[in-house]
Amino acid sequence: MKLALFSHCAIDTITIGDQKYEQIGGAACYCGITARQFKFDVELFTKFGNDFPKQYLTEHKINFTNAESEKKSTKFSIRVNGADRTLKLENQCEPIEYSSVNADCHLVSPIYHEISDKVFSEIKKDSNFLFVDPQGFLRQADSQNNVQLQKTDLDLSNVNAIKINPEEGNQIVGGTHDEMMLALQKKGVEHVLLTDKTNVSLLVKDRIYSIILPNKNVHDTTGIGDIFCSTFCCTMIKEKDFLWALCFAGGAAQAALDSQNVGLQKIPNKGTVQTNASYFYNLVKFRDI
Fold first, then answer.
1. How many domains does the chain have?
2. How confident is the model over 99-121, as pLDDT tens digits?
3. Which phi-psi region, left, alpha or beta, contains residue 101 (left: φ > 0; alpha: ψ -120 to 50)?
């Protein structure tokens, strides 16, 4: 099975308390390596400069073409404070170019405006199952390069699944949590995921399914959402079951948090994810809406 992934590689400087860690990252790395854990072939559409260690992708058997840029890689400074974090944009690489690819699923997860409306439209025409994490569509840097979210009108037609947090949802549709999920569904999205720290909800048709992640001791949250999205996407394609996809995604996020590792080191193996998923499957709550 193959995942087509659209996102920039990044170089992150992560600050936790008094400690600083320089890590490669971006959804390209987190989602790509997570998908490899599920034995998916990964076709990565990205851009990076000569400052990015491309051998890391090669070692993990992540395929990429036409990815190298004369510009430096996209770079963020990230300060983590418990479950919250702040971002500063240090550098932005050039946009991603599109070329058609035959894949079982497409995952669009920009980190900062690397996917144009035109490219997004072309991806939607080609995809069999399209998952969108809209974070990079919504981000805007101020005059000091601090990254904030801004209201954005996204065309979500032909999108099969989306993952938002409350802050992102407010920039796209607004309202209460339930109202945001319903509004996204009305835009055409079949599976609407809302993550609010340890609370995870999924709207399908007229029912909301929910799980609660038990982890309270948060260390580094960087990439947790990417691990979650990639796991949901891969499980949906393999199992054709949105409840298992929800539980696997939650299980992957929990395992990553439990690891207490920084950066890409927190990506869990499939066995740990599966154990957590079985635990969550017996605890799923649901309500009609």
1. 1
2. 899 999 999 999 999 999 999 99
3. beta
